[in-house]
Amino acid sequence: MRRPNDVARNEGRPLPASPTTPSPVRIQMIEDSQPPATPQLAELYSDFEASMMVPLWTQIADLMPASPASRARAHLWRWSSLLRLAERAGDLVPVGRGGERRAMALANPGLGGRPFATPTLWAAVQYLMPGEVAPEHRHTQHAFRFVIEGEGVWTLVNGDPVAMRRGDFLPQAGWNWHSHHNATTTPMAWLDGLDIPFVHATESGFFEFGPEDVDTTATPARSRSERLWGHPGLVPVSAAVSVPSTPLFVYRWERTDAALDDQLRLEDEQHPGVLEKGHAAVRFSNPSTGGDVLPTIRAEFHRLRPDATTRTRREVGSSVWQVFQGRGEIRVGDEPWTVERGDLFVVP
Amino acid sequence: MRRPNDVARNEGRPLPASPTTPSPVRIQMIEDSQPPATPQLAELYSDFEASMMVPLWTQIADLMPASPASRARAHLWRWSSLLRLAERAGDLVPVGRGGERRAMALANPGLGGRPFATPTLWAAVQYLMPGEVAPEHRHTQHAFRFVIEGEGVWTLVNGDPVAMRRGDFLPQAGWNWHSHHNATTTPMAWLDGLDIPFVHATESGFFEFGPEDVDTTATPARSRSERLWGHPGLVPVSAAVSVPSTPLFVYRWERTDAALDDQLRLEDEQHPGVLEKGHAAVRFSNPSTGGDVLPTIRAEFHRLRPDATTRTRREVGSSVWQVFQGRGEIRVGDEPWTVERGDLFVVP
Amino acid sequence: MRRPNDVARNEGRPLPASPTTPSPVRIQMIEDSQPPATPQLAELYSDFEASMMVPLWTQIADLMPASPASRARAHLWRWSSLLRLAERAGDLVPVGRGGERRAMALANPGLGGRPFATPTLWAAVQYLMPGEVAPEHRHTQHAFRFVIEGEGVWTLVNGDPVAMRRGDFLPQAGWNWHSHHNATTTPMAWLDGLDIPFVHATESGFFEFGPEDVDTTATPARSRSERLWGHPGLVPVSAAVSVPSTPLFVYRWERTDAALDDQLRLEDEQHPGVLEKGHAAVRFSNPSTGGDVLPTIRAEFHRLRPDATTRTRREVGSSVWQVFQGRGEIRVGDEPWTVERGDLFVVP
Amino acid sequence: MRRPNDVARNEGRPLPASPTTPSPVRIQMIEDSQPPATPQLAELYSDFEASMMVPLWTQIADLMPASPASRARAHLWRWSSLLRLAERAGDLVPVGRGGERRAMALANPGLGGRPFATPTLWAAVQYLMPGEVAPEHRHTQHAFRFVIEGEGVWTLVNGDPVAMRRGDFLPQAGWNWHSHHNATTTPMAWLDGLDIPFVHATESGFFEFGPEDVDTTATPARSRSERLWGHPGLVPVSAAVSVPSTPLFVYRWERTDAALDDQLRLEDEQHPGVLEKGHAAVRFSNPSTGGDVLPTIRAEFHRLRPDATTRTRREVGSSVWQVFQGRGEIRVGDEPWTVERGDLFVVP
Fold first, then answer.
1. Same domain membership, residue A79 and residue A39
2. A138 and chain D in contact, CB less than 8 A
3. CA distance C284 to B309
4. Are residues C95 and C141 in the same domain?
5. In a mutagenesis test of the A interface, which of D20, D34, D180, D343 is the best target, namely the one with the most A β-carbons within 10 Å?
6. Residue D164 lies in a domain
């Protein structure tokens, strides 16, 4: 190695990470690893630590596994339990500026107690009491809401009031202003999905507060976004541009139900349509591009006929599933579960 | 100019286009053009002709105009007249293999009597008598049908029967098998739009005959394509791939009507949506991409409030318009027309 | 057909195309076509003509052929002949404003004497005498130049002087200002390729004059575009945006030669690279997208080893080929030709 | 909240995460947070922990900061120190199967001692002794090598030997087989860059071992990939397809040097090209797309004139910089450093 003179002067001593703080690097000597554990090696490792360096050869098994052995684990949360806890939080925890939302996140047992359902996805039960307002804010995290039961909350997205009802799917791209208010006399719970862990890992989150109160308490049955973008295959000429996240803020249950039903009837008539025998599935898509509703989250709705069995799948991406209706047997890895309405489980 | 020896031997005489046929090239000497009309120039031009060459300087005004002065002209066809002619053709001209369709094309007065509505678009009235079948074929030309009135014909697209009813728009990408059959006791007429002139100019047309009779005379109210692709923002997971032409074979009038109505109501409530004051417009789009329904044809539906006036537009592409309902004043260039239901006009 | 009352009143008479001018539509009755040639049919056809309508059934064979039987024909032009004619034009025809260029276009024998090499491509020999200037203009037509021999002309593209030398390929997107000037004491000829026929058919041409004289007579060996974009795989951060046409204004012969040579050497070493046995080929590409250099024109350079034979191809697009060096046998359809340096031929 | 009967039976007790293992969830009561710290709240939090749930309101400050306050810190590593440590590792640590590479990664002081230069990037010094072979493997992580000094190692990428020399940049998409061998009598060090932290966070890593020895010890001056893809604007017709990662395996210093030099000369002549005054910059790009060389890593080379000062930038993405030659002052946040050849620093 040719080393020019002008950088030779520092050779004697590695530059310490900082004169006053100890290095966080800790290198373990591994018995059956390549280099024998000599005093010289110990000294080298110590100098690595002081220099903020980590050798690949002590870390490669963890960093570069043969296949992604996810730290996340398959796990099941019962809706009945989640709801009971949410109700108790409704009694004890106010909603407002600062805490922002009465949302309780699923914490995957494999992820060290962090509120992450999978390494990239956040899933939480949000609960709003009669008359309550979850104050306006916006953030770069992409989000969706899915309503497993109940109705009566309106989400205001950039001033557009969107009713939430059982079966509705409400995607919402990052950086849209949004708030929720419960216009009824009963509480309401729903599922919040976000890409918080992904944004956290890539450190790309921005957040901004809006007003504490909602702009409008109007409760229209249809949002403005549905009126502009909710007509199949019809895009407004005034806005006919591709946008990376869907301009349609809600996908109504009636439509999803009809689409799934149509697939099964096509199967009855022996025409293509279902994903596999007895298994209908639709993907929520951005009508301005035909692609996924959100850049970081794919969302689908699946329906199985009674007694239908899906083939075993192996996937690289992680996913969170919620049972909308019915009851069934699920097997994730070695975990067999009987699941029913509202139950949530993670496929890591 | 350095000219190597090995190509010098042909210099004496230009190679004739063909020993036996005269050249089709004819070069005019233009008085006020640059070179003076000398005998030498005449001889050069004669040799150009024999050599199948044309100088730019005699053609540039036609070939490279300052702006596209379309040969096509603004023109209006009255639906009542077209329909009367179509009815007479119904009496005199059978439908079947060879002629393929009882379609009568609009011939733009500026395009030399060719059946081209504009330099790139074909528009024709097609007419089908009770019980008749227009036999199956396919072609690379992209097509759509638009139903100005009537119902009772089913178009079979790759075996999928698609009902045609007033207000429906039926795009159909090139190379799909298709036929029509009239399942009623009354005739039916509709508008056929194709890119025949474009394909003709680029010489990219292929055509293939199918069976003379239809596979099925089933008359379902909804086609299979609607059941798979007609749900807003929902794409079948079994087929979730981008395709260049729309997989949805019909855009129903009820949906288009509702979308246009929604835009005008949003305007009533002072929200964005309309294209301009009193002017709602939707674009028919491919749900798998969000883009245009066909690679070569853009299709839109516009609605004007009573007394609304659109701003004057200048466009480069050519277009064909048909009045769906109501009555109005149109001005194209210097042509002012009062148009009503069914009337067709060309903007060159 | 249900016809509402309000459009019934016009039924009696079709609206004439215009009261004063005769219709250009002429419909032929074809003996072996479907409808028998009755007086009623003749009257219908006459009314079609008056109404500017053309039935599909008399035109379908021409409009929708089973496969594109191009009107264009395979044809060969000898470079030696073209050059001799160009030299004579150099003596007789000045270059300047109005005629714009001393360019002589190849007229395909199948295209009626029009200056079109194929239905979509223009190919012309341009010839510039010592000291001459072809004045600045711009147009929406996309263009390229290819230098079969000689050197000494600079093309100014938006003020950037680009030297032209044997083997160089100079693409130039529509709407760039450009002019040429010959800085030497010998004439120079080259091939101009444009999409004039395509733009003519789609009526999308705009054209604008610039100054009659060139901005600069500088004769640098390398253009500014080469300095910014001519480094393989390196794009300037100041301009790193995808543009639809190449920002590199010239592809030098030395580079093309080396690339083709490299492919043949890879073949010698039994590695992939050549298109087929003994046949190297490169495509000129837009470094900002990796795609074709121009939206409407694909350009490639092919090299065959001595005695190599390419497989027979059938293509849909039309092409123009020029022999850069060597001598060979070409077969297009039934036409066998012996071609040599500079010869041009069309594959329709 | 309407709760149907059939899910009521589980209400009494939340389902524990697992009967035998304690939950990893730990919820802190925060004094100045919204809900008062009552026994009821403590019990709720305890039940949250048992149920694998985490409330948003205790975590939001960390999870959703107003702007990304990266855990990573600006940090500087001296090349001279790194090289000295690498040399000592050369003496003590063998290279071979298992450890795979003698690579020493930069550990950002803010990332807890993990071998991550930034939250998404890995940067390591790799060191190979005379005659050594780093055995073949492949992984989904994307990688590049950059040579700060020395030469004599060949990287075999899918069997293609690529010479490594000072200034060369060698990107290598995930899942390509690769190995290194030192064909000289002197050691060689270089910089390895990978997206290991990103792949780790998204758990998308696969890894596979190849043979322990190299297929070939050939030491050609040019790789096959350069011969196919290293010609500016020329793509092989045999392979002209867009691929997401660059098919060109090395960007030679001579080319980068010339491109940067050209930009500064254009600036001398007052033409556009540089990024800002005195600051030339090129981006390494994929010749098949014009886009970034790798899906997850952007790579650029910058050159500053003596005494040039760049404007202050604020960026969201993280980056690692290495000084190729010269000496200068750098300020990252509040850190002012004098840097010289080889020094590496992180901008978080």
1. no
2. no
3. 49
4. yes
5. D34
6. yes
Structure tokens at C168: 């160089």
CATH code of the domain in which B140 resides: 2.60.120.10
If we measure between CA atoms, which residue out of C97, C170, C171 comes closest to residue C135?
C97
Is there a contact between C290 and D290 if contact means CB atoms under 8 Å apart? Answer: yes
Residue D202 vs residues A200, D52, D62, D141, D195: alpha-carbon distances, Å: 11, 21, 20, 11, 11
B148: contact with C, CB 8 A cutoff: no
Same domain, C158 and C274: yes
Phi, psi of B137 (to 5 degrees): -155, 175
Does ipTM surpass 0.90 in this model?
no
pLDDT above 90 (res B201): no
Q: Starting at the edge strand that comes first in sequence, how are the strands of the sheet with A319-322 ordered? A: A75-77, A344-347, A319-322
Residues of chain A contacting D187 with CB distance shorter than 8 Å: 1
**CB atoms B235 and A275 under 8 Å:** no
Does the residue A117 lie in any domain? yes
Give the Cα separation of C273 and C36 in Å (integer): 61
Q: Are residues D45 and D193 in the same domain?
A: no
> Which residues in chain A have their CB less than 8 angstroms from residue B283's CB?
234-237, 240
Chain pair A-B, CB pairs under 8 angstroms: 161
If one counts the domains in chain A, the total is 2
Pick from A300, A315, A345, A283: which is nearest to A123 by CA?
A345
User: Which of A66, A87, A118 is the C-terminal boundary of a domain?
Assistant: A66
Chain C residues near residue D235 by CB distance under 8 angstroms: 282-283, 285, 290
- Residue D32 pLDDT level (bands cut at 50, 70, 90): low
Let me know if residue B326 belongs to a domain: yes
pLDDT one-digit tens code per residue, B117-142: 998 899 999 999 999 999 999 999 99
Q: Which domain holds residue A258?
A: 75-347
Q: How far apart are the first and last CA of chain C?
A: 46
Are C53 and C85 in the same domain?
A: no
Q: pLDDT tens digit string along D300-316?
A: 999 999 989 988 776 65
Neighbours of B15 (CB within 10 A): 16
pLDDT band at B264 (very low <50, low <70, confident <90, very high): very high
Is D171 a domain residue? yes
- Count Cβ atoms within 10 A of the Cβ of residue D291 and give its class: 0-12 exposed, 13-18 middle, 19 or more buried: buried
Hey, what are C343's tokens? 């010869």
B-contacting residues of C 31-90, CB under 8 Å?
33-35, 38, 40-41, 44, 47-48, 51-57, 59-60, 63-68, 70-72, 75-85, 87-89
Domain boundary among A66, A91, A116: A66
Q: Which helix (H) or strand (E) holds D346?
A: strand D344-347
B281/A231 CB distance under 8 A: no
Residues C167 and C234 in one domain: yes
Residue with tokens 């108790």: A88
- CA C253 vs. chain centroid, Å, equals 21
Q: Are residues C284 and C197 in the same domain?
A: yes
Statement to judge: residues B159 and B229 lie in one domain: yes
Q: Which two tokens stand for residue B317?
A: 């592409």
Residues of D in Cβ contact (< 8 Å) with C313: none
Tens-digit pLDDT string for chain A (348 aa): 232 222 222 223 333 444 445 788 888 776 655 678 888 888 989 998 998 988 888 888 888 888 877 788 899 999 999 999 999 999 988 888 888 899 999 999 988 888 999 988 999 999 999 999 999 999 999 999 999 999 999 999 999 999 999 999 999 999 999 999 999 999 999 999 999 998 888 888 889 999 887 778 899 999 999 999 999 999 999 887 788 899 999 999 999 999 999 999 999 999 999 999 999 999 999 999 999 999 999 999 999 999 899 887 766 578 999 999 999 999 888 878 999 999 999 988
CB contact under 8 A, A7 and D340: yes
Residue matched to tokens 């050594």: D132
